[in-house]
Design goal:
Blueprint lengths: L1 H20 L6 E4 L2 E2 L8 E5 L2 E8 L7 E4 L1 E4 L5 E4 L6 E7 L9 E4 L2 E4 L10 E6 L5 E6 L10 E5 L1 E2 L5
Antiparallel strand pairs: 1-5, 2-14, 3-4, 4-12, 5-6, 7-8, 8-12, 9-10, 11-12, 11-13
């Protein structure tokens, strides 16, 4: 009995150590990324139909699937989700095809999309969304409390993988 418990403990520790030492890999199989609160409850991350470089929250029927592992990459288009260097607390997110220069600050905390503590952004889990046409909401990383003037926005949104139940 004790030997069996010791073996299981060793296996868990060895697996955790190997995962920590491994190069950045995909942390989740291609998954949808969704919102969980109003006004974008159960909207999903995808490229804006009128400009595929703009990440938006929109209907599930047109959602994309993403590989997450340091970077966030669309399994549909291969585009990477990147964070801009805006002077405001909300940072413009864009989709770009190039892997060179792709933002590698993304991480998961449970099912929640965050920027990692070790990144230049620190641990951030809040997003800002601003309404665009056609029922889509443009997504920004939020590092403070600024919002753009003259736009209909919702602050302090969080983005999640589907239920990991």
């Amino acid at each position: 009995m004790l030997s069996s418990l010791a073996s299981r403990f060793f296996l868990i520790v060895a697996t955790a150590a190997a995962a920590a030492a491994a190069p950045r890999g995909v942390l989740a199989k291609p998954e949808q990324i969704r919102a969980v609160q109003s006004p974008i409850f159960h909207f999903y991350l995808q490229a804006y139909p009128q400009d595929p470089t703009i990440p938006v929250m929109g209907p599930e029927g047109s959602s994309e699937y993403f590989d997450i592992g340091g970077t966030i990459q669309s399994a549909n288009t291969s585009a990477f989700l990147n964070i801009g260097d805006d002077a405001t607390s909300y940072k413009t997110l864009t989709f770009a095809a190039e892997s060179a220069g792709a933002t590698d600050a993304w991480a998961l905390e449970g099912d929640t999309i965050i920027t990692s503590t070790a990144s230049s952004y620190g641990r951030q889990l809040n997003f800002l969304v601003c309404q665009l046409g056609g029922g889509y909401w443009q997504v920004y990383l939020q590092t403070g409390s600024d919002t753009p003037a003259g736009k209909t926005c919702s602050n302090y949104q969080s983005l999640h993988l589907p239920c990991l139940c």
